[in-house]
């Protein structure tokens, strides 16, 4: 009897030890997400946004470097890549929208301690990636008619068709990458996103000149080389993202066996994600329409517009990084019912947004010639670019305000507000105003459509912010 009691006591000790180990692992796993509800706001915002902001800078850098090297082929190559830009934006729109919907839902459930739902959301994100990829593979199959619908120049059509096919057919890595980044972001592990972004971006930057111009024994592939360097950079980031999520994001319980469709979860993801997809997609439609308006003047006008969009990404990407960092913090504190912290995040984000974007406007006004020179611009393109950069950069501070306010819209389940603002600004102001101005004032009048549209967007943002305050925040 004594021996049996001793054996039973040993078993209880072993079981208790295992429970303590599991408890310690559970606390350790949840520590990163719980800090979104406990750490001082200012430090938390900086801690989460700086890695994202830096990674966004890297993304902007390799987009600009990509265009810089392409411009060294000739101006038509740069024009062709610009014509592909709306469809790359559409790809990003669907990928980011799906990822944002998933991230906001994850953070909400983490804040409410609903860990079974956290796992389900994470795994259904990968199912949506496969569905989305099929759509963009089909777009790649129609690359030639898509580019031919925008220009009749045979060389631009050839360049554009090649670039669009490769970037769409191999787009699955970029779409998985968006999901992997949001999984890390939703649990507060933003420093690992930096590793993903930097690795892919540096690979792209290094391989661009090698594949475009045929260095180190590689054949010169021109525009095709630029596209290949881009997608292989995305593949590298994706592989590293998979490894990091499996290694460090254990609170999500990622496993291939758990990837099963749950239609209610998918519906909830897209309830938050579809407005973001529409919001981003409207931008792609706007770019396509402006390209059509500008090509009537010259391919130089299209190339100039492409240069502006590459350069302005340096200003916008940090704000998008801060927006992405704010969404899970706001969603977490909403789920945890911490009103004061939620309001502090929104207020601080808006201040940062306006300051950063104002600096961008100043830079565009001070050194426009030097910025255009990066793209080997001709005198004609430089003169056009200086005017374009001066005028369109006036919208930056207003955009900073709206983007950071939009973080609250997304996190509180009102992404439709951001969608409405984007629809009005880009479809009902920019496109028609740009078209009218192109008829009555020439190409330089087209640029004024952008700051005018941003004023409309800011007015709507103020109205929606008051509505959010009244209907949601004040009732917490």
Q: What does this protein structure show overall?
A:
With 476 residues, the protein is mainly α. It has one domain. It has 18 helices and no strands. Helix 11 packs parallel to helix 14 (379-392) and helix 15 (396-411) packs antiparallel against helix 16. The termini are far apart.
Which short descriptors sum up this protein?
disordered N terminus; 476 residues
SSE inventory with pairings:
Elements: H1 2-34, H2 41-71, H3 75-111, H4 115-141, H5 143-148, H6 154-169, H7 172-186, H8 190-213, H9 223-248, H10 263-295, H11 299-335, H12 339-366, H13 368-373, H14 379-392, H15 396-411, H16 415-440, H17 443-446, H18 449-471
Helix pairs in contact: 2-3, 2-8, 2-11, 3-4, 3-6, 3-7, 3-10, 3-11, 4-6, 4-7, 6-9, 7-8, 7-9, 8-9, 10-11, 10-16, 11-12, 11-14, 11-15, 12-15, 15-16, 15-18, 16-18
Write the H/E string, N to C. HHHHHHHHHHHHHHHHHH
Tell me how many strands there are.
0
Low-confidence blocks of residues:
1-31
Task: Note the beta-strand portion.
Answer: under 5%
What's a quick, concise take on this entry?
Helix content is 84%, strand content 0%. By secondary structure, the protein is mostly helical. Helix 3 packs antiparallel against helix 4 (115-141) and helix 6 (154-169) packs parallel to helix 9 (223-248).
């Amino acid at each position: 009897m004594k021996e049996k009691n001793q054996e039973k006591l040993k078993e209880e000790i072993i079981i208790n030890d295992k429970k303590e180990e599991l408890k310690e692992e559970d606390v350790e796993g949840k520590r990163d997400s719980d800090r979104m509800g406990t750490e001082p706001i200012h430090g938390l915002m900086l801690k989460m946004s700086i890695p994202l902001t830096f990674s966004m800078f890297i993304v902007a850098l390799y987009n600009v470097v990509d265009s810089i090297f392409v411009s060294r082929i000739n101006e038509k190559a740069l024009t062709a890549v610009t014509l592909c830009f709306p469809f790359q934006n559409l790809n990003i729109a669907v990928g980011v929208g799906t990822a944002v919907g998933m991230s906001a839902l994850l953070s909400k459930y983490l804040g409410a301690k609903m860990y079974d739902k956290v796992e389900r959301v994470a795994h259904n994100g990968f199912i949506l990636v496969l569905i989305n990829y099929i759509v963009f593979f089909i777009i790649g199959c129609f690359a030639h008619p898509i580019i031919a619908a925008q220009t009749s120049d045979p060389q631009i059509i050839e360049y554009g068709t090649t670039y669009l096919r490769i970037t769409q057919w191999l787009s699955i890595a970029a779409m998985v990458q968006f999901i992997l980044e949001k999984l890390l972001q939703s649990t507060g592990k933003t420093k690992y996103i930096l590793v993903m972004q930097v690795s892919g971006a540096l690979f792209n930057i290094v391989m661009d000149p090698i594949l475009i111009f045929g260095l180190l024994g590689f054949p010169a592939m021109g525009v095709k080389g630029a596209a290949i360097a881009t997608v292989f950079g995305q593949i590298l980031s994706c592989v590293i993202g998979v490894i990091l999520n499996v290694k460090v994001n254990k609170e999500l319980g990622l496993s291939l066996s758990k990837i099963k469709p749950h239609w209610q979860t998918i519906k909830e993801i897209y309830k938050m994600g579809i407005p973001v997809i529409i919001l981003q997609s409207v931008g792609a439609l706007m770019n396509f329409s402006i390209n059509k308006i500008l090509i009537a003047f010259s391919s130089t006008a299209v190339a100039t517009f492409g240069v502006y969009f590459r350069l302005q990404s340096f200003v916008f990407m940090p704000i998008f990084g801060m927006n992405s960092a704010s969404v899970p913090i706001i969603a977490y504190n909403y789920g945890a019912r911490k009103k004061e912290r939620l309001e502090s995040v929104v207020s601080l984000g808006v201040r940062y947004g306006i300051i950063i974007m104002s600096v961008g406007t100043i830079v565009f006004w001070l050194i426009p010639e030097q910025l255009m020179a990066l793209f080997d611009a001709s005198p004609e393109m430089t003169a056009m670019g200086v005017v374009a950069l001066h005028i369109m950069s006036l919208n930056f501070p207003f955009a900073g305000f709206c983007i950071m306010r939009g973080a609250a819209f997304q996190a509180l389940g009102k992404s439709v507000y951001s969608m409405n603002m984007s629809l009005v600004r880009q479809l009902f102001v920019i496109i028609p105003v740009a078209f009218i101005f192109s008829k009555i004032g020439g190409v330089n009048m087209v640029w004024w459509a952008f700051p005018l549209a941003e004023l409309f967007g800011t007015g709507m943002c103020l109205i929606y912010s008051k509505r959010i305050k009244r209907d949601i925040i004040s009732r917490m």
